[in-house]
Amino acid sequence: MEKKDNGYLIGTVGAIIGGLIGTIPWVLCYVYAEMMYSVLAILIGIGAFKGYELLKGKMGKPVPIIVVAVSVACVTLATLVVIPHLLLINEYGKTSMETFKALYAFDEFKTAIIQDYIYSLLFTGLGISGVIANIRRGIKNGDQKIDLMAPAFTPSDEEISAVKKIFEKRNAMDKNTVIPKDEVMDAVKDRESVFKFLVSRGIIGKKNGGYYYNTEVEQNPGKRAVKIILLTFGITFGVIALIALIGIMLG
User: Fold this and answer.
1) Around Cβ 80, how many Cβ atoms within 10 Å?
2) Residue 33 is part of which domain span?
3) Mean residue pLDDT across the chain
4) What is the model's pTM?
């Protein structure tokens, strides 16, 4: 009998609980050791996913997005709300909404906490990227148990060459000639992990429901790297703009 899941909503509740638990080491290190350890951000992503799992959330494509969103929300709450309260308790032995608001009234503190928030988001992104990649891969493969700390897969040159030959035989070496998805999946069934690796690197492209081998990207990987850098810059700019907006609202 197939196990029944509790849907995305219940799973998200579990992710929030797990993510908040995962922020505890982060918060304690920040308040009592006055340090931010990027490696601890991994615990936030792991906690969010494990909470999602424990409440039997539905395993589907939205799960990585849920884990990222919950992780960012937990870091936001921890950095902008929980940590200031704990700093007040650590300094004065108590806290209240009045003292919390008074703390944010100091421009020096507000600037410092927003800078730390930016670093926290960057650390979170770096820390959970591997976890998210493993979640996505596990869901695609239909794994019963997802290994969150699995090392990244890197195929050998021989394995890549074997997959490339499949496209060469069908003359699908640019976007003008593609192999239908069903044919590709049949042809690479013994090397599916290599195929997915090449797709993730942009070496195998997708167009009109089919796939082709992109020799331009293979020979010039820097082109794809530039696109990734521009995308990262765009996301970072958006985050900074959001933080600035929060700063204006708080001010």
Assistant:
1) 18
2) 7-144
3) 79
4) 0.58
